[in-house]
Amino acid sequence: MSDTDELRLEVAYGTADRQSLVEIRVKQGTTCGEAVLLSGISDLFPHDRIESLPLAVWGKPVPPDGLVHQGDRIEILRHLEKDPRDARRQLATDGRYMGGSGLRSPDP
User: Which region holds residue 95: left if phi is over 0, alpha if psi is between -120 and 50, else beta?
Assistant: First the structure.
């Protein structure tokens, strides 16, 4: 494969505990789903069913059969355990906030 026939891209996936970003080179005409398989990222997360998760490119949802382009970052999206808005509301109800220790500073 010559330099003009190949595309450089990244495949990203992460869990709450671990993240991985894999750089790969693929032929023009490769789909997002194929790129994920070619990246081998599922081998790094053997307990996750990566092939069944939705995909995005730079944060925008894409179908697995969408074609990749030079410089794309394919993101494998995992399902959220809790809606972030609901989590913030619950923390606020408990007198806490997201980030840091999660505890509010005492009022002066």
Answer: left
Confidence label for 41 from pLDDT (cuts 50, 70 and 90): very high
The pTM is what? 0.72
Q: Output the CATH code of domain 6-76.
A: 3.10.20.30
Note the pLDDT tens digit of each residue in 80-103: 677 778 878 888 888 887 665 555
DSSP 47-90: TS-GGGS-EEETTEEE-TTSBP-TT-EEEEPPPPSS-HHHHHHH
Work out the angle at residue 13's Cα, subtended by the Cα atoms of residues 12 and 19, and round it to the nearest 5 degrees. Answer: 100
Which residues are 70's β-sheet partners?
Answer: none
Q: What is the mean pLDDT of residues 41-65?
A: 93
